[in-house]
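User: Just a sanity check before I run the rest of the batch. Below are the structure tokens for the first item. I only need the designed sequence back.
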């Protein structure tokens, strides 16, 4: 069995890296930060935003509501205010199911070759 090195996960991500993850402009991330209390990145001495994994998960949640589900900003705020934990659980479940699907598709593809 070949040794596979575990990918090192960063503690902090720049706004550019976060924007790239979601294929949006950094200005949209800054705008969402001003609109949603959920996104609160730390700032270093230079004033650059430093996003944690939790911040990125919150951006993912807002992205899902606004970009994928078509909620207005106000609608997304209401949804998060009413039950943000349920939304986070739902997002985790969706991510888990996507991961399982990706694995199953890769198994199917290998079996067909």
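Assistant: Here's the designed sequence for the first item:
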């Amino acid at each position: 069995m070949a040794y596979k090195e575990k990918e090192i996960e960063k503690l902090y991500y720049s706004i550019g890296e976060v924007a790239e993850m979601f294929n949006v402009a950094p200005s949209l991330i800054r705008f969402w930060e001003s609109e949603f209390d959920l996104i609160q990145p730390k700032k270093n001495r230079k004033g650059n935003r430093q996003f944690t994994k939790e911040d990125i998960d919150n951006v993912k949640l807002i992205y899902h509501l606004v970009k994928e589900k078509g909620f207005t900003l106000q609608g997304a705020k209401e949804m998060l205010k009413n039950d943000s934990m349920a939304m986070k659980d739902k997002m985790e479940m969706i991510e888990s199911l996507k991961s399982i699907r990706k694995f199953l598709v890769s198994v199917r593809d290998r079996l067909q070759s």
